[in-house]
Design a protein that fits this description.
By secondary structure, the chain is an alpha/beta fold. The protein has one domain: Ureohydrolase domain (Arginase, Chain A), CATH 3.40.800.10. Helix content is about 40%, strand content about 10%. It contains 8 helices and 4 strands. It has a 4-stranded parallel sheet, sandwiched between helices. Helix 5 links the parallel strand 1 and strand 2. The two termini are about 20 Å apart. One of its GO terms (molecular function) is agmatinase activity.
């Protein structure tokens, strides 16, 4: 799972706590908890919290049930490794596009003898055929890690580096991202 700082595991709890602060969102001009048809179905139950591959299987099975019911899943928390089983579930019928806002591409290969880690979910999803790299845009990528971006470029992903954001401007980035993902199913 998570290296360095494992605070992301508290993400779901934090999001649930925010709703209690107040229901109205001034930017959206709505009360999302009341105006949207949404439900908190709780945390994905894990058969073992110590076996990452088993956790991924549990996540994929849970998201597959949600998708099969015709529901669009919104997932919060965990590290980036959970993206792979989520993409396997939502892209099972048809590869999805991706708008990925992050500092890292997350397209690294096996690390420390493990295929599954938080630095490689996008690569694994492309190799599994559930993520369409030509309909993928990665925004905000930074750092001295050119070797970690190679897969993104070689597979056909579009990478917008952090240094490019101020020059392009947010409206242009949004327009470019929409153009890249097109009208097909897209994971954000």
């Amino acid at each position: 799972g998570v290296s360095n700082r494992p605070g992301s595991r508290f993400g779901p709890r934090a999001v649930r706590g925010i709703e209690r602060i107040g229901p109205y969102h001034h930017v959206l001009d709505c009360a999302p908890a009341y105006d949207l048809r949404a439900a908190d179905i709780g945390d994905v139950p894990f058969a073992s919290r110590y076996r990452l591959e088993q956790c991924h299987e549990n996540i994929e099975a849970a998201i597959t049930k949600i998708v099969a019911a015709g529901v669009i899943p919104v997932s919060v928390g965990g590290d980036h490794s959970i993206t792979h089983p989520i993409l396997k579930a939502v892209g099972a019928r048809e590869p999805v596009g991706l708008i990925h806002i992050d500092a890292h591409c997350d397209t690294g290969g096996p690390f420390d003898q493990s295929k599954f880690h938080h630095g490689g979910p996008m690569r694994n999803a492309v190799l599994d055929g559930v993520l369409d790299p030509t309909r993928t845009v990665q925004i905000g990528i930074r750092g001295p890690s050119e070797y970690l971006w190679e897969f993104s470029y070689e597979s056909g992903m579009t990478v917008i580096h952090a240094e490019e954001i101020s020059g392009m401007g947010i409206p242009a980035i949004i327009e470019k991202a929409r153009r890249i993902v097109g009208d097909g199913p897209t994971y954000l």
